[in-house]
Amino acid sequence: MTLPLWVIIPAAGVGQRMQASCPKQYLSLAGHTILDRTIDIFISHPLVAGVLVGISAEDAYWSDSKWCDHDSVHCFVGGKERSDTVQEGLRYLFNLTGIKQQDVLVHDAARPLLTHAALERIIHHHSEQGALLAVPSKDTVKRQQCGSAIVETTLDRNIIWLAQTPQRFPARALLDALEKAQAQGIAVTDECSAMEFMGWHPDLVVGENSNIKITLPEDVLIAEALFTYLAKKNLIKKSLAKAKAKTSPANPRLSNLNSKYHS
Ligand SMILES: Nc1ccn([C@@H]2O[C@H](COP(=O)(O)OP(=O)(O)OP(=O)(O)O)[C@@H](O)[C@H]2O)c(=O)n1
Ligand SMILES: C[C@](O)(CO)[C@H](O)COP(=O)(O)O
């Protein structure tokens, strides 16, 4: 049986590589902000218990989000690096629910094109060592010589996967791993790296090439085109779900869960 999962959405980055006038998660994608679209993917899923959104202490945009007053959406202040934001999210979750052993999903705010099918695959994938969406490399991959842009070797692409999110791990073990990696000065750019540091071997669950992380200015154009394609094929929703106020929960399952956690 799959228990409802909490989802942590790190959205506290500044989007330095995007070079926009606001953090990239607040840029528009097909009429809504990237962040609102990302939250929408999870909010009405019956196996999502709630969504925790990590925003920057300097954030000036969250209060305008369609989801800011939603019953099942909680906001917390993130940290300097993505890993700090995820750690804060896990601590917030423990305070809010007391849940520690259960799995959580972590999904970048900057990946608003996650399809329903890919979400289903990770939600229903049970593994003691955790799991992440990833795609096999389409390209020939070179490793450079240390310190110079000269090819050292070509990697065997049959064993190369590109990591995506959502990534799924037991909440307590994930926080331990992130804290330990940080304490030892190991920079981790995803949850899986922290678990690898602890000796875990998470499952690679096949993702989709369309689940891009919007990072560079041209990615916004690519995302618009992908959105049109995915929406036309009904692989992703065109309109956002109706946002309901804090007093009227989105669905009875969530309402029951929330009252259980808060009691
Ligand atoms: N301190 C941080 C840094 C990043 N993120 C989030 O982690 C996700 C993936 O990070 P990335 O794409 O690198 O976003 P930015 O850090 O904003 O981009 P850049 O590295 O170009 O500044 C994004 O949703 C971003 O908002 C976060 O929550 N807290
Ligand atoms: C988690 C991630 O999106 C997996 O591809 C990625 O590692 C985030 O890294 P970034 O350094 O924040 O771009």
UniProtKB/TrEMBL annotation:
Keywords, in A-Z order: Isoprene biosynthesis, Nucleotidyltransferase, Transferase
Site label Positions MEP for the nucleophilic attack, positions: R157, K213
Pathway assigned to this chain's UniProt record: Isoprenoid biosynthesis; isopentenyl diphosphate biosynthesis via DXP pathway; isopentenyl diphosphate from 1-deoxy-D-xylulose 5-phosphate: step 2/6
GO biological process terms, semicolon-separated: isopentenyl diphosphate biosynthetic process, methylerythritol 4-phosphate pathway
Catalytic activity: 2-C-methyl-D-erythritol 4-phosphate + CTP + H(+) = 4-CDP-2-C-methyl-D-erythritol + diphosphate
Domain of life: Bacteria
Enzyme Commission no: 2.7.7.60
MF (Gene Ontology): 2-C-methyl-D-erythritol 4-phosphate cytidylyltransferase activity
One protein family per Pfam: IspD
Family, per entry: Belongs to the IspD/TarI cytidylyltransferase family. IspD subfamily.
Function description: Catalyzes the formation of 4-diphosphocytidyl-2-C-methyl-D-erythritol from CTP and 2-C-methyl-D-erythritol 4-phosphate (MEP).
The protein's name: 2-C-methyl-D-erythritol 4-phosphate cytidylyltransferase
Species whose genome carries this gene: Marinomonas profundi
